[in-house]
TrEMBL record:
This is Isopenicillin N synthase family oxygenase. Coiled coil: none annotated. InterPro entries: DIOX_N (IPR026992), IPNS-like_FE2OG_OXY (IPR044861), IPNS-like_sf (IPR027443), Oxoglu/Fe-dep_dioxygenase_dom (IPR005123). It comes from Falsiroseomonas frigidaquae. The keyword Hydrolase does not apply. Belongs to the iron/ascorbate-dependent oxidoreductase family. Keywords: Iron, Metal-binding, Oxidoreductase.
Length: 325
């Protein structure tokens, strides 16, 4: 096995301090194209998400995971993919990176975009209510505030992403009028130093959708696989996010941008917490090769696909609750 390198100087760092200005978006676009066309990962620094907002969501996650097991299991994952996911209940069977046979050694609480009962989508696949622990006053408000801040942040990223792909700045907006979003509050218990090589907090995989914006604590454990097979440690940088391309964005760009394999092993000796936010297009969106990413010499590598169909296929294979009668 190739020993992982320290990635602090290998994953690009993109400063978002000027996000939303013409000059800033142009500079960010250039940096995005270089990072996502290379390793498919980057650190985002100076984001609109304040240190207080970051601290609040970590505190909310720790409060939830400190609940008794019975309280957490009372809101197990429902059919709309919202709720508590106990340890060792997901196996990444759709991994294109490795043959995964062991479940992930982690637990999490999953929230998705809010769908009101009067919304025409209500009751359709993945379009239903979130679940909330009754034992934690203020928890719902804290989580929804962070979700709203992250959605606003990701919407603001759509313009420099479009510019990076040689598209009009507003090109992507219609695909995200009703985005599919996931906020996952993850807890990784410490793994023993002698854990088997194929035991992971999160087994090698790529993400399904558009982009993932990850807030991680200082424990370490996330690793990213370079094209040459070397695993790089995504060493935490205080206040920053680790952002990566998902399968749908790689498909949309005809492979110009990379959906890169990554994995987690928590060998810190303590608990690890992370809060990945997945920002994806509307489930009804058709993902066909972007016009700027194909030509006669570079034809589309994939047929068009509905994002919702692609997503459901992967959830149905990877999560045991979806296979129960």
């Amino acid at each position: 096995m190739r020993i992982a390198m320290d990635a602090a100087q290998n994953l690009p760092i993109i400063d978002l301090g000027a996000l939303g200005t013409a000059e800033g978006d142009a500079a960010i676009a250039r940096a995005l194209d270089a990072a996502f066309g290379g390793i498919g990962f980057a650190y985002f620094a100076n984001t609109p998400i304040s240190p207080a907002q970051q601290a609040a969501i970590f505190a909310a996650s720790r409060r939830f995971h400190a609940l008794p097991d019975a309280a957490k299991r009372a809101i197990d994952m429902n059919g709309f993919h919202r709720g508590y996911m106990a340890p060792k209940t997901s196996v990444i069977q759709t991994s294109s990176v490795a043959r995964v046979t062991k479940p992930n050694f982690s637990e999490s609480f999953m929230f998705m975009h809010e769908v009101a009962e009067d919304d025409p989508r209500f009751g359709m696949p993945l379009q239903g209510p979130n679940q909330w622990p009754a034992e934690l006053p203020g928890f719902r408000a804290e989580v929804l505030a962070y979700q709203a801040a992250m959605e606003d942040f990701c919407r603001r990223l759509l313009r420099p992403i479009a510019l990076a792909l040689n598209l009009p700045p507003d090109f992507l907006l219609p695909f995200f009028e009703k985005p599919t979003t996931f906020l996952r509050l993850l807890h990784y218990p410490p793994q023993p130093p002698d854990a088997a090589e194929d035991e992971f907090g999160s087994a090698p995989h790529t993400d399904y959708g558009f982009i993932t914006v990850l807030l991680q604590d200082m424990s370490g454990g996330l690793e990213v696989r370079r094209a040459d097979g070397m695993w790089l440690r995504a060493t935490p940088i205080p206040g920053s996010f680790v952002v990566n391309v998902g399968d749908m964005l790689a498909r949309w760009t005809n492979g110009r941008w990379q959906s890169t394999p990554h994995r987690v092993k928590n060998l810190s000796g303590g608990d690890r917490y992370s809060c990945p936010y997945f920002f994806d297009m509307d489930m009804a969106s058709e993902v066909a090769c972007l016009p700027s990413c194909t030509s006669a010499a570079n034809p589309a590598k994939h047929p068009p696909v509905l994002y919702g169909d692609y997503l459901l296929e992967r959830l149905n294979k990877n999560y045991s609750y979806r296979r129960q009668a």
